[in-house]
Amino acid sequence: MKTNSITISCSALLLSMLIAVAQTAAPLGIPKPGPTNDAPYAPQPILPGGVVVPLYPPGSPFLKMERVREAEYYNLSKAVPGRITWITNIHNPSIEVHTVEGGNNTGAAIILAAGGGHNTLNVGTEGADFVPYFFNYGVNTVILRNRLRKDGYNAKTDAVNDAMQAIRLVRANAKGWNIDPNKIGIMGFSAGAELAAPTAIFFEEFDKTNSAPSDPLAGVSSRPDFVGIVYPGPTPFTRGATPVIPRNTPPAFIICAGAGDRVHAIWANEYFTAMLNTGIPNVEMHIYGNGRHPGDPLPDGSRMSGGLTHRNGIPFGTWQDRHMDWFRDLGFLQKPGVETKAAKDIATFLNQPPPRERGQRSGAGASTNAPSSAVSK
Fold first, then answer.
1. 328-369, pLDDT tens digit by residue?
2. I need a surface site. Which of 30, 55, 128, 231 has the fewest CB within 10 A?
């Protein structure tokens, strides 16, 4: 009995020592901002294996020379050691590329534009979490670190330019990263969707503006091959705006909660209606009856989570599976180099006469517009 008592006491002592060590040990691999010096700030990867590339060369007129050397600020989770929840103070915007190994690589690449109200960049739930998720489908992931309104930038110009530049940069490096240049798209969340949606219709203007011989990416298209618009902020069609919709506007996947996130659902519907009225193929939308915007309070006192999180088990928590159904249906999960259904459908659409010539109204933004065949006689 005495031996057993000694054994139990030693085990208890060992357990308490292990607990104490675990509670005081510093977690390994916590991402830290890079050093500052006279050169433009060098953004650091927020996940192991990430390749970080600045969007613009040193001295680019897109950058603020007086701030480009400042370090980014990383907000770390208080519950999960080493996890970055959001980033601010981004003055040398960049992309962080996570590629897929050869045998599983579909060649598709999704650029992720995180939300945060243009005040923070929520790269945890709306960036880093998607890297292993898309990896399992053979999809390369690119985390965009765009400039923020909080840091003195214009969301409609500076941040949108960052998104379009990211598409060009990925396409320019497609061969070296084993990415199919015809399978590059962008997915934006909330404020990030305010970057993704404009890329779908303003790419021609951006490419024309940035075509000078001095531009290292001149001639590389910023047109995304697909867009994801996730619980979006205002789109280019908000407040009755009717921008020109190019006939080669890419397919879109749109999701949002419904009445629980009414304003964002209206913005989602405005984008969908504009695409539907124009006849852009392969635009899909899911408005969930039960759900709220990420960060909104719930009845139990908690807050609605975003990104991939299960959202307490409601159907809204499985939107990413619906996205992959759509993605697969359009051929983006085929091997690299195989023409997608999305590309074929756009080519077919381009060969058709415009809606007005077919006796349809062509209004881009008004929700009352509809094909004439659908109007009661």
1. 999 999 999 999 999 999 999 999 887 664 444 444 443 333
2. 30
